Amino acid sequence: MAGQVFLVQFVIVVLLVAAAVAALVLQSARDALKEGKRESVVAAQAFANAPGVVKAFRSPDPSKVLQPRAEDARKKSGVDFVVALSTTGIRYTYPYPQEIGKKFVGTIEPALHGHTVIEQVGGPPLPAGKGTAVQAVVPVTDPHGTVVGLVSAGITVKNVSMLWMPQLPLVLGAGAGALVVATAGTVLVARRLRRQTRGLGPEELARLYEHHDAVLHSVREGVLITDADERLMLANDEALRLLGLPPGTKGRTVQELDLPEPLARLITSPGPVTDQVYRVDDRLLAVNKRPTVPKTGPDGSVVTLRDTTELAAVTGRAEVARERLTLLYEAGVRVGTTLDVGRTAEELAEVAVPQFADAATVDLLDSVLRGWEPTAEGWRHLRRAAISGDVRMLPVYPVGELITFSSRGPQMKTLQQGHGVLEPDLRQAAGWQAQDPERARKALKCGLRSLVTVPLQARGVPLGVANFYRMAGSPAYEPEDLSFAEELAARAAVAIDNARRFSREHKMAVTLQRSLLPRGQPEQEALDVAWRYLPAEGRGVGGDWFDVIPLSCARVALVIGDVVGYGLHAAATMGRLRTAVHNFSTLDLPVDEVLGNLDDLVVRMDNEERPNGAAAGHEGEGVTGATCLYAIYDPVTGACTMARAGHPGPLVVSPEGVVSSPEVPASAPLGLGGYPFETVQVKLAEGSQLVLYTDGLVENRGRDIDTGLAELRRALDGAVGRNPEEACQAVINGLKPEHPSDDIALMVARTRLFPPSHVAEWEVPSDPAVVPSVRAQCRDRLRDWGLEETAYTTELILSELVTNAIRYGAPPVQARLLYGRTLICEVADCTSTSPRLRRAATTDEGGRGLFLVAQFAQRWGTRYTTCGKVIWAEQALHGVAASGAGQRPVDVLLEQFGDVTL
C-alpha cells in the first residue's frame, strides 16, 4: 500500500514539474517575442531617422552608403538585421552582401503609406541562424513627408526563446525535493502499517477476513460479542433475525436493544451460561455465553443463540393467512374508489402485486369497457385493461390490445367453467402455451413459472378474467392460493360491474343531453357566438343548457339556463324547456313574458310529476326548480333587452377590453309561480362581448361564487381583439376545475350593428294617396343597393303592408327596409290589432293583400311593441324566395279567382 501511494506521489510530482517547465517555456517565449517586437521597432526607427539617411536613399548608389551604416547599427543595437529597402521592396543592405538587390521578404504596403509594420516571417539566412524573424518595417520620409525608402529591423525568435534556460534548474530542484519528502513519508507509513498489522501481508489479511466473515454469517446460530461496557461489538445476520434487531445496532448497549428482560439480564450476567432456553416472540432460543480473553484489551463476552422451536412451518402458514386477510381488507378499501371501469381494473392489478403475485393482468370484455351488457358471444375476444408488476421483461400483451383466447387456454376454461384455473408449472401447461407458442416460449425464458386465472363475475355474468403470475424466484401457486384469488376477484368484479353500469347510464345521459343542446350555429348576422359545455364528473350530467335563436327583423335571442338535479330526468327536463323557449320565441313575445310562460310550464310539469302533491322519493319525481337568463339583441339599434330568473347575471366586455356587469334585476327561479320578471335594456357598442354562463363555472366546493366571479373577470379583462372562440377558451383554461362537480355552460356573443347605409326608414302619413310615393322611394333605395330584381316583389309587399296600416291602424305609421342576409320589410303603427291571413271569396273586393305577402315573402309575422305592433316580411336574396317563384304576382292572384273551392 505504501509503495502504491509513493508511485502516485511520484507521478503527481513529475506532472507538476512538466507543467511548470511548459509554462516557463511558453511565458519566456511570449516575453521574448514581445521584447523582440519592441527592439525591432526602436532599431528600425532609429536608423530611419538618423542624419543623412534620406540623402543616402537619393544618392546614385544607396547600397554603398547605407550598407556600412546598417551593419554598424545592427551590431550596436543587438538586433539580427537592419535592412534598407527601396520603395519597390529591393534590398539596399543586408548582413550577407549576396542578398543585396533581391526582393525583401515581408509586407511593405502599409509602410509606403507612412505606417509601421510589425510581423513574423521567415527569410534568408542571418548571422544568428535561420528561423522565424520578428521584424518591423518603417518608412523613411523627407522633410515634405514623401516616403523615399523603407527600413526593416528584426530579431530571430530562435535567439530570444533560450531565455528560459537559466530558470530550469530551480524547477527541477523543487521537483527533486518533493520526491525526497514523498519517499521519506512512504518509509514511515510502511513501518507503521507493518506494526499495526503485526507483520501480516495483504493476502494473509484478506484470507483472515474472508474466513471470519464466512464463519460468522453462514452459521445457523446467532452470535453476539459484547465488550466490558456491555456494548454490542458484533452481531451476525442470524442473531439479528432471531432477536428482531435492526441492522444498525452495533455500538449500542444491551439495555438499548429492547430485548426481553430475562434475556437481557442473562447477556449482562458475569458468569458463563450453557443451553438456557428463553422465549423471544414466538421463538424458543437456546442461549450459550462464554467470556472472551484477548491477549490485549478489556474483557468481553460471546453469546450464541440457537432456534430450538419446531413450529416454523406452522408459524409460516399462520403468517400467510394473516397476510391474506390483510390483503383482502386492503382490496376492499383500494378497489372501486372510482366509477371508472379501466381504473377499477388497474386497482385490482395493483393491489395483488407484490403481496400475492409478481405480475398481474386484467382482461375485460370489450362490451364491459364500453358500458354495455356482457354477452357470452364476446368471451373469446377480451381487451387487456390493466397490467401491474415488473413485466417490462415479459412478452405480455400491452394494455388496450384485443386478445383472442384459445379454447384450450386457461382463460377460456375459467370463463366457461365459472371458477378459477391453477397452472402451478407453466412449463407443463400445454393449453397456455398453445395460445401463443412464441410468446409463451419467451415468457418461460424470462422466468415466468406459475399462473392462477380466475373469472370476474357479477350477478352470475362473466365480465372478464384476472391473471396472477409468479416468477421462478417465488414459490409456485398452490390450491389454497386459487381460493384466495377467487375471493379477491369476486370482490373486484362487483366494483367493476358498478362502474360499468354507471358508465352506461352516464353515457346515455350525456348522449341525451348533447342531442338536446345546439349542434351548430343558426344563420344570423347580429352576433358572433361561441360556446363551451363541460359535463360534471362523478355525479352524472346536469341540466345546463343554452341556445341561440334567430328572431324576426334580424334580432337574435340568447338563452342560458340550469335545471336543478342530475341524470336523465334533468336532461329530459332541460330538453322540454329548450323546446318551450323556441316556441315562445317564435311568437315574438317580450322577454318578461317568455320567462313568465316558462315559469308556468315548470309549475305544470312539477304538478304532473308529483301526483297528490307528494314526491315518490326517487329520481324523476318532481322538478325542484330551474334558472334561466333570456336576452334579445337588436342589431339595428344595438339595444339588448334582458331578464333573469334566479340565474347569475351576465358580463359585458367592451371593445376596449373593459369588463362590466349590467344591472339585470334578479327575479325568482322558475317553478315558484306567480312572481313577475323585471327586464332591463342596455346599449351595446359594436364589438362588445356578452358573456353568459351557469353557476358551475364560478362556484364549486373549493371556491365560492364571489371568488369565481373575480377570476372570471380577470380571465376576460383586457382581452382587446380577442374573438368569442378565444375568449371561451381563455375562460375555460382559467376557471375549469380539474374534476368539475357541476355542469359548466359558457356562451360568448360579440355584437354587430347594421350599417346605416343598409337601413331605410320613412314616416308615412295616414293617407292612401302616399302609397305610390312610398313605393317609389323603395324602388330608388333598392336600386342603390343593387337589388333591382327584387324591386317589384318588395314594392308589392311594402305597399300592401302600408295600405293595411293606414286603413286599419293608427298613426304614426313607419316603414323600414333592412338589407342584410335577407331583405326585411317592416311597417309599424300604434294599434295592437293583428292582421289575419284568410282566403277571400270570389265576390270580395279585398282580403288578398296578406295572401300575396305570404306568397312572395319567405316568412312574415307580427311583433308587438310597447306602443303598438310591427308587421314584417322577410325575403331571401339568394335562391328561390317564395312559393310563387317563377310566376308573376298577377298570375298568382288570377289563379285564386279560378279556384273551384272559392
From TrEMBL:
The chain crosses the membrane at residues 6-26, 168-190. It is found in: Cell membrane. It is a multi-pass membrane protein. This is SpoIIE family protein phosphatase. Residues 340-506 form the GAF domain. It comes from Streptomyces gibsoniae. It holds the Pfam family HATPase_c_2. Its main location: membrane. CDD domains: HATPase_RsbW-like, PAS. Residues 527-751 form the PPM-type phosphatase domain. Keywords: ATP-binding, Cell membrane, Hydrolase, Kinase, Membrane, Nucleotide-binding, Phosphoprotein, Transferase, Transmembrane, Transmembrane helix, Two-component regulatory system. The lineage of its organism: Bacteria, Bacillati, Actinomycetota, Actinomycetes, Kitasatosporales. InterPro entries: Bact_Sigma-Reg, GAF, GAF-like_dom_sf, HATPase_C_sf, HATPase_dom, PAS, PAS-like_dom_sf, PPM-type-like_dom_sf.
